[in-house]
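stage 2 :: seqdesign
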């Protein structure tokens, strides 16, 4: 037995109890607009490439979370279709755009909504007509390398070695 005896056991039990209570509060916390208290309404968005977006991904408007992605599937043309649950107090116009953005260089991806100037409002179940796909960093780096090679006259050819 250790020097602390029962005191160590009691302190350990209190720490475990506090951890369980904190975890319970975290999981019981309302999720905001996509949570169970605000049903919101559903919209769909169709992307050629939806890398990094999945069920539960954030939907934002001007950087503020206004919903979640609740479903994803492929259509008959093999395009990614995301179903978004948007808070009922957010009215989006028919010319709204949806773009996939990343938080920082390596952060999580989310769908950013960009409302247009039209007066007609999207109805529940309608599709957001304008979308911008996710940019994959590997594709971006490859594009930069190809442009650098083209500028130096090495497009389609190996770059000469600087070592002998």
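stage 2 :: out
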């Amino acid at each position: 037995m250790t020097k602390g005896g029962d005191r160590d056991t009691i302190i350990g039990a209190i720490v475990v109890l506090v951890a369980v209570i904190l975890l319970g509060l975290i999981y019981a916390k309302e999720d905001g607009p996509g949570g169970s208290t605000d049903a919101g309404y559903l919209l769909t968005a169709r992307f050629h490439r939806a890398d990094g977006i999945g069920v539960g991904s954030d939907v934002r408007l001007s950087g503020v979370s206004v919903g979640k992605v609740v479903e994803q599937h492929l259509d008959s043309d093999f395009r990614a279709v995301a179903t978004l649950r948007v808070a009922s107090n957010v009215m989006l116009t028919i010319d709204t755009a949806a773009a996939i953005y990343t938080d920082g260089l390596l952060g999580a991806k989310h769908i950013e909504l960009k409302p247009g100037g039209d007066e007609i409002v999207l109805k529940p179940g309608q599709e957001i007509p304008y979308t911008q796909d996710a940019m994959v960093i590997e594709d971006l780096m490859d594009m930069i390398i190809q442009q650098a090679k083209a500028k130096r006259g090495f497009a389609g050819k190996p770059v000469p070695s600087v070592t002998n």
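stage 3 :: structure notes
- Confidence is low (pLDDT under 50) at residues 32-37.
- The beta strands are 41-47, 58-61, 64-74, 80-86, 97-102, 109-114, 127-128, 130-132.
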